[in-house]
Amino acid sequence: MTLLDFAALRETRATNPTAFAEAFARRRRRELIVGDGRLFIVAADHPARGALAVKGDEMAMSNRYQLLERLAWALSRPGVDGVLGTPDIIDDLALLGLLDDKIVVASMNRGGLRGASFEMDDRFTAYTVESMVRDGLDFAKSLIRINLADDGTAATLEGTAQAVSDAAASGLPIMLEPFMSDWVDGKIRNNLSTDATILSVAIAAGLGNSSSHSWLKLPVVPDMERVMEATTLPTLLLGGDPVGDPDETFSTWQDALTLPGVRGLVVGRSMLYPNDGNVELAIDTAVAMVHPNL
User: Fold this and answer.
1) Is residue 266 within a helix (H) or strand (E), and if so which, with residue range?
2) How far apart are CA 73 and CA 65, in angstroms?
3) Which of 104, 125, 219, 263 has minimal Cβ neighbours within 10 Å of its Cβ?
4) Alpha-carbon distance 146 to 135, whole Å?
5) Which residues are CB-neighbours of 151 under 8 A, at least 6 positions away?
6) CA–CA separation, 50 and 79 (whole Å)
7) CB within 8 Å of 257: residues ≥ 6 apart
């Protein structure tokens, strides 16, 4: 990936802002559902929320050039269907010419900064549906952390409902990532119990004036069968921050991918920053679970 021209990228950003629209206009798009009907998406919207840590390294994702190189490696692998990011990431990838034939998922609300007193206020600070239509992007994504003891949740639910309605009106799929969350010792903790996940699904699925374009992005939790029995919405599984034994993690993903309604996997840090540093091997291992007949 030494061929990535970062000097040209910096120069273009400084001198030719119209290049962004040109890059998106010439991007070769693809249909959302092709082949086996499953999706493998690489996630890279963590930095915009101040979440730079991977496996205890608080600044693991701080080097933008390394992140872009790792994304380039990932997007070059067969079976990787697309990428999820905020405008800064997606714009870089577009200028580098890495988005042809890929699903581009646009992250919308990153205002609830990690560790902030206002972390539960997941207001919309990135893409809008209008800007996604402008750039010809393929999929929207909204985080929905639901804290019954925090007033900030109300604004998140209202903003997400409007985003769902706008996406449906524009014919744009939208991926909803719900969690039941709590303040614990001054920090937000997502409740990954089965019942809490089912509750979050019930709340998220009802947002907006139409569910015609709504998808879910859900964690793999115990008794995942019950979770998938709680919704008819197409669902992608999320990887989360890598912890524990990678083989055990892969095994839980593999089992969950067999459930009715599960359409694929959205992973980021665990694949982009694997323990052994081999991004290609990590990506290929996960792709094989999503697209076993590739």
Assistant:
1) strand 262-267
2) 12
3) 125
4) 30
5) none
6) 29
7) 237, 264, 265, 289, 290
Q: Which domains does the chain have, with CATH numbers?
A: 6-290 (3.20.20.70)
Q: Which two tokens stand for residue 28?
A: 């070769």
Whole-number pLDDT of residue 56: 83
pLDDT of residue 1: 39
Q: Are 144 and 156 in contact (CB under 8 A)?
A: yes
Structure confidence by residue, pLDDT tens digits, 27-55: 999 999 999 999 999 999 999 999 999 98
**pTM passes above 0.85:** yes
Sign of CA dihedral 269, 274, 278, 282: negative
Task: Note the maximum CA span of the chain.
Answer: 53
The pLDDT of 172-176, averaged and rounded, is 98
Cα distance between residue 171 and residue 165, in whole Å = 10
Q: Which two tokens stand for residue 285?
A: 């291992």
Contacts of 215 (CB under 8 A, 6+ apart): 173, 174, 175, 176, 233, 234, 235, 236, 263
Which of these, 91, 125, 105, 122, lies nearest to 174 by C-alpha position?
Answer: 105
Give the per-residue pLDDT at 263.
98
Q: Tell me what pLDDT residue 281 has.
A: 94
Percentages (nearest 5) of helix, strand, coil residues in the chain: 40, 20, 45
Q: What is the mean pLDDT of the chain?
A: 95
H helical segments located in the chain: 6-15, 19-26, 64-75, 87-95, 129-135, 152-170, 194-205, 224-228, 246-256, 269-272, 279-290
